[in-house]
């Protein structure tokens, strides 16, 4: 006759095997969900899984996935993952349950950034939920919808609400979706920096929509600063990621601080 401990051990073993089979089935369903979200044929994604970087060549589908709300799934594992937060417009960490969920789920911060960095950045006002307000008028207005990344009509009651409220579609589009050909860094003004070197660099000129040469002083400045004209066009015209540039050393940081102190002293003397 089996002892109490042997009986419980057998039950535990059966539970584990059933759990394993269940997780395999969930993983298959999860892969199918991801294929549907990214529009990829089943035969081409046998090894795809939630949490890996999405398949290349489906940028529109990637963007739609990045706009999905975070979904931990029904399981109870505690798996650290990353998702794109459309409200903060940045990649954030969350805890994934281990099954189901959706495609806005990445193994690392870098995977999330690589997949979602092309999502258009919109002003803070446009990230508010449409609010009809407490009054009872019936005014047709437009608000920007972060889920669809479009300006959509809603009914405004006539009082209160918030700033995501435009009288016509064009006003909403002009404010929330300005036509830009590249990342926001390309729309920073030319900035030579604070030091005294003279290094040839390139910046994107928003007025002429072209890359122009300027003299960089060697420290400070902003991200609209490219080593070559080709790099400038690749990022600001073609939408590629900016190539890495060596970070400033402690020496250059000290130079920046000294320059700022000198400038503040000069301004204080003038005033």
Automatic annotation (TrEMBL):
One of its GO terms (biological process) is blood coagulation. It is found in: Secreted. Pfam families: Kunitz_BPTI. It comes from the Eukaryota. InterPro entries: Kunitz_BPTI, Kunitz_BPTI_sf, Prtase_inh_Kunz-CS, TFPI/VKTCI-like. Residues 66-116, 126-176, 186-236 form the BPTI/Kunitz inhibitor domain. Keywords: Blood coagulation, Disulfide bond, Glycoprotein, Hemostasis, Protease inhibitor, Repeat, Secreted, Serine protease inhibitor, Signal. SUPFAM superfamilies: BPTI-like. Its main location: secreted. Gene3D superfamilies: Pancreatic trypsin inhibitor Kunitz domain. GO terms for molecular function: serine-type endopeptidase inhibitor activity. GO terms for cellular component: extracellular region. May play a role in the regulation of plasmin-mediated matrix remodeling. Inhibits trypsin, plasmin, factor VIIa/tissue factor and weakly factor Xa. Has no effect on thrombin. Finds in a complex with ABCB1, TFPI2 and PPP2R3C; leading to the dephosphorylation of ABCB1. This is Tissue factor pathway inhibitor 2. It comes from Geospiza fortis.
């Amino acid at each position: 006759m089996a002892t109490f401990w042997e009986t419980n051990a057998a039950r535990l073993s059966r539970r584990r095997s059933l759990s394993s089979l269940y997780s395999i089935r969930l993983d298959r369903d999860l892969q199918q969900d991801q294929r549907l979200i990214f529009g990829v044929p089943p035969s081409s994604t046998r090894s795809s899984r939630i949490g890996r970087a999405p398949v290349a060549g489906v940028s529109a589908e990637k963007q739609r996935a990045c706009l999905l709300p975070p979904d931990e799934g029904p399981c109870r594992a505690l798996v650290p993952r990353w998702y794109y937060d459309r409200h903060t417009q940045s990649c954030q960490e969350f805890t994934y349950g281990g099954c189901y969920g959706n495609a806005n789920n990445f193994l690392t911060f870098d995977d999330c950034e690589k997949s979602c960095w092309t999502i258009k950045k919109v002003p803070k006002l446009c990230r508010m939920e449409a609010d009809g307000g407490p009054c009872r008028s019936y005014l047709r207005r437009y608000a920007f919808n972060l889920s669809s990344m479009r300006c959509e009509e809603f009914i405004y009651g006539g009082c209160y609400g918030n700033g995501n409220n435009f009288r016509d579609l064009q006003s909403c589009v002009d404010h929330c979706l300005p036509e830009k050909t590249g990342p926001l860094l390309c729309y920073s003004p030319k900035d030579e920096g604070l030091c005294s070197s003279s290094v040839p660099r390139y910046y994107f000129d928003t007025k002429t929509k072209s890359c122009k040469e300027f003299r960089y002083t060697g420290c400070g400045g902003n991200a609209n600063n490219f080593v070559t004209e080709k790099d400038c066009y690749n990022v600001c015209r073609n939408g590629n990621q900016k190539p890495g540039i060596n970070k400033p050393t402690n020496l250059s940081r000290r130079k920046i601080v000294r320059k700022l102190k000198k400038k503040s002293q000069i301004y204080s003397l003038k005033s």
